[in-house]
Design a protein that fits this description.
Length: about 80
């Protein structure tokens, strides 16, 4: 009986340890909204992802129009 209790305590502490490792107490804080353009979403023409315009990579296409990309990889693909 005592042995089962010991295993239960061991298992419980192990679960707590694992869950603490998987879920750190401090979640990354969301970036503060920019005052200029709060929450403006633009679509990446390569992969279709919507990106915050203040954080998107910008490039001009051949027609001189501004295009927004989620990553450098997508910007390279568009060329
Ligand atoms: Zn993309």
């Amino acid at each position: 009986m005592f042995r089962y209790l010991l295993w239960a305590v061991l298992a419980f502490s192990l679960v707590r340890l694992v869950s603490r490792l998987l879920m750190p107490r401090r979640a990354p804080a969301p970036p503060p909204p920019t005052a200029a353009e709060p929450g403006v979403l633009v679509q990446d023409p390569v992969c279709g992802t919507f990106v915050d315009r203040s954080r998107a990579l910008v490039a001009k296409d051949r027609m001189g129009e501004m295009r927004y990309f989620c990553s450098e990889a997508c910007r390279q693909k568009s060329r």
